Amino acid sequence: MKKQLMAMLFGATLLLGACGGGDETTEPEEAPADNGGEETASIDAEQVVQQNCISCHGENLEGAGDFPALNDVGSRLSQDEIRSIIENGQGAMPANIIEGDEADAVAEYLANMK
């Protein structure tokens, strides 16, 4: 009885080990090609804003409490000014809440909100 139980456990372990774990043979991602400043085109800036900004600035970016409205921020600030605020923070907003290409894409997206 003990041998059968051990054999069954060993067999189950082998079976689960062979089936589990997912695809680990994926090739490494290629570095993005330099396309003359078009790297922000593949980033969904609206989704990044939804994930990072609405908790403070309101669901429709209309502002909430001490947090300013972003739904018309492009009429008040340039893309560079918006990028600077994302990078350096301002007021209660921490610095670098969004970084890199995502920050560039969000700054462009918000600058177009007028």
Automatic annotation (TrEMBL):
The keyword Metal-binding applies. Pfam families: Cytochrome_CBB3 (PF13442). Heme c binds at C53, C56, H57, M93. It comes from the Bacteria. InterPro entries: Cyt_c-like_dom, Cyt_c-like_dom_sf, Cyt_c_BACSU-c550-type, Cytochro_C551, Cytochrome_c550/c551-like. Gene3D superfamilies: Cytochrome c-like domain. The keyword Heme applies. Residues 19-41 are annotated as: Disordered. Coiled coil: none annotated. GO terms for cellular component: membrane. Binds 1 heme c group covalently per subunit. Keywords: Electron transport, Heme, Iron, Metal-binding, Signal, Transport. Residues 1-18 form the signal peptide. GO terms for molecular function: electron transfer activity; heme binding; iron ion binding. Residues 40-114 form the Cytochrome c domain. This is Cytochrome c-551. It comes from Planococcus antarcticus DSM 14505. The lineage of its organism: Bacteria, Bacillati, Bacillota, Bacilli, Bacillales.
